[in-house]
Design a protein that fits this description.
Blueprint (H helix, E strand, L loop, with lengths): L1 H15 L3 E9 L5 E9 L9 H10 L3 H19 L4 E7 L12 H9 L6 E6 L9 H11 L3 E7 L5 H8 L3 E4 L1 H4 L6 H17 L2 E4 L5 H9 L4 E2 L17 H17 L12 E2 L4 H10 L5 E6 L2 E7 H9 L3 H5 L13 E4 L4 H9 L9 E6 L2 E7 H17 L10 H13 L4 E9 L1 H8 L1 H18 L6 E6 L2 E6 L4 H15 L6 H6 L1 E5 L5 E5 L2 E9 L7 H18 L3 E6 L4 E8 L1
Parallel strand pairs: 2-3, 3-4, 4-5, 5-6, 6-7, 7-8, 9-10, 12-13, 20-21
Antiparallel strand pairs: 1-2, 1-8, 10-11, 13-14, 15-17, 15-20, 16-17, 18-19, 21-22
Helix pairs in contact: 3-4, 14-15, 17-18, 18-19
Length: 590
């Protein structure tokens, strides 16, 4: 009886088009901006078919799925236009619909034209939960969508019949990872590796990855760390018939905290701690009370209009009050009368190394322990010399952990952090990839000790000719170096490096090898062949703000530039034109 009621209800829904489109937001996990909405469907309220799972399951059982799906698509597009929602509209399309008689080619385009919606804002989500047809018809239909300007996405990757096969055959612009892989990903090492692999494949294929079903802040933070570009889920926004929010508060909080942590890491702000303060006009007896109530406090900052002007030290006040009649004579005196002005006062953005230099440059007789930290001149907190030394030591240990043992230059992890920070800050930069030509045969013939000497030579020349202020030098392994330049000074620096390298590298060959112009060694095919003297290839790419979304994409582009430079042969610095996929007219040779 209940089944008959459900069937009757389905018939009424289809006849009266009694469904309501819902929209769930999708966000850019790098910028926090709204990327688009996925269109979902609900049956009539207080109906047994209000749930989309029950509604679509019953429709499929009665062979009405395609009719229902077409109706949902049309109503979703109309409502999307009526609400003037920003971003892209994601429409679910079952794979079986594409080849069905109900599927009318051109229907969606006609609706969009009528409502003045651009095709590039529409994404067709092909669900992997229904088996994909391999007879060519569906492929042709998908290509038809693509030619009309629509984007194609695979939905629920990982729970269907042939996920990676479907990905490789359809070559979608977008892939959505099923919520199974997202749930508790922060606690599951296996899920992390699966998602990491999907992100890597997506980056290589130029495909956007969207994580579905994000429900906790820990899951969200883990996905951001793994380089997932887009996300949706109850944490970011629930489906609703009338979306009103264009941003996610929790996402903005997490991104702000990550940017703040990156800023704080190497600045004096990382030392800032709460400390009780006093104001000009307070009395010394109040200072005595503060010291008595907080035994760990050795100095109290004194503020005037919330700006620090010095400190009162416990030792000095104790000495004053210990003299005969000291307390009686001075306890009602203004704290400013006992003010010590030699405390170091610095702005929160100042680097730890700069603060260290300021302290060590002080006269030995006036060396103090207090570091008062301000923000735009106003009191923020206080640090100590002990905290400074501890933090610098921690950073040195961290840098040593990720440094190349041969050159002691930063390795992959610091480089990736540097690139991500610049992209988050919307900074443009140049990235230069340095690599030696004929290094393996040189190593085989001359020995690894000489090979290490040549690698150290390259590292030393890079450090010598590149002013590290504003630039970042890294040694990512073997004979590979990467430099991030903040400006176009890369040209002069690279020219100097190439010129000096060409002269210096000859010292690592004997006279016979120099006269021959190279060495004989086995090539990659195991055959003896001649290899020219070592030369240095530098591939450079200019990256604009927002051109890449994470360090993985940057690495791919830099590797292309290096590969093109190496093909030229000899000592060369080549600027790779990313838009044309070839070297630009600007190149430097020795």
């Amino acid at each position: 009886m209940q089944r008959l009621e459900h069937t009757s209800e389905l018939t009424k829904i289809l006849a009266n088009q009694a469904i309501t489109p819902y929209f769930q937001p999708i966000f850019d996990l790098n910028s926090g901006e709204l990327y688009g909405h996925e269109a979902l469907t609900r049956g009539p309220k207080n109906s047994s078919l209000h749930s989309p799972l029950q509604l679509f399951t019953l429709a499929e059982e009665h062979k009405k799925l395609h009719q229902l799906e077409i109706m949902c698509r049309e109503k979703a597009i109309i409502k999307f236009a009526e609400l003037a929602l920003p971003g892209k509209l994601f429409l679910n399309v079952s794979a079986s619909l594409l080849g069905s008689p109900e599927h009318q080619k051109g229907m969606t385009l006609a609706i969009l034209d009528r409502l003045n919606i651009a095709q590039h804002n529409i994404v067709m989500e092909l669900s992997e939960q229904h088996k994909f047809e391999h007879d060519g018809l569906s492929h042709a239909t998908i290509e038809h969508y693509r030619k009309m300007g629509f984007k194609v996405a695979i939905d629920d990757l990982g729970v269907g019949y042939s996920g990676l096969q479907l990905w490789s055959e359809i070559q979608p612009e977008i892939v959505k990872i099923d919520k199974h892989f997202i749930q508790n990903i922060d606690q599951d090492a296996v899920k992390k590796e699966f998602v990491r692999a999907m992100v890597a494949i997506g980056n290589r294929l130029g495909c956007d990855i969207i994580a579905e079903g994000i429900e906790t802040s820990d899951e969200l933070e883990q996905l951001i760390k793994l380089g997932v570009k887009k996300g949706q889920g109850y944490l970011l926004g629930r489906p609703t018939p009338i979306p009103t929010e264009n941003e996610s508060n929790i996402l903005n909080v997490i991104l702000s905290r990550r940017r703040f942590q990156k800023h704080v890491r190497d600045s004096v702000m990382s030392l800032s701690k709460f400390s009780p303060t006093l104001n000009v006009g307070d009395e010394l007896k109040t200072a005595s009370l503060v010291f008595r109530q907080a035994p760990e406090v050795m100095a109290i900052p004194i503020l005037q209009n919330n700006k620090p002007i010095g400190v009162i030290r416990r030792s000095q006040l104790h000495e004053l009050f210990s003299t005969p009649y000291g307390r009686a004579l001075y306890e009602n005196t203004d704290v400013s009368q006992m003010l010590t002005e030699d405390a170091l006062i610095v702005e929160s953005h100042i680097s730890l190394s700069t603060v260290s230099m300021q302290l060590t440059n002080q006269d030995a007789t006036s060396l103090n322990n207090e570091i008062i930290i301000t923000q735009q001149g106003e009191y923020l907190g206080m640090g100590s010399l002990k905290d400074l030394l501890k933090r610098i030591t921690e950073l040195k240990i961290q840098n040593a952990t990720y440094s190349n043992p041969l050159t002691l230059l930063p390795g992959n992890v610091p480089l990736n952090q540097e690139i991500d920070e610049r992209m988050h800050a919307k900074q443009g930069f140049y990235i230069a990839y340095f690599d030696l030509n004929h290094f393996k045969p040189f190593n085989d013939v001359c020995g690894y000790a000489k090979g290490d000497e040549v690698i150290k030579l390259v590292g030393a020349l890079i450090e010598k000719h590149i002013n590290q202020a504003g630039h970042f030098i890294s040694h990512i392994g073997g004979d590979d170096f990467v430099v991030v330049f903040s400006d176009d000074s890369w040209q002069k620096s690279c020219q100097k490096i190439l010129t000096e390298f060409e002269a210096e590298v000859k010292q690592h060959y004997d006279n016979e090898q120099l006269e021959a112009g190279g060495v004989y060694a086995l090539d990659r095919h195991g055959e003896m062949s001649f290899h020219s003297l070592l030369s240095l290839a530098i591939g450079v790419v200019q990256l604009e703000p927002n051109q890449c979304e994470n360090h993985l994409q940057v690495a791919e582009i830099a590797a292309k530039a290096k590969k093109v430079a190496k093909k030229q042969g000899g000592n060369i610095c080549l600027l790779y034109d990313l838009t044309k996929g070839r070297p630009s007219d600007t190149s430097l040779c020795c």
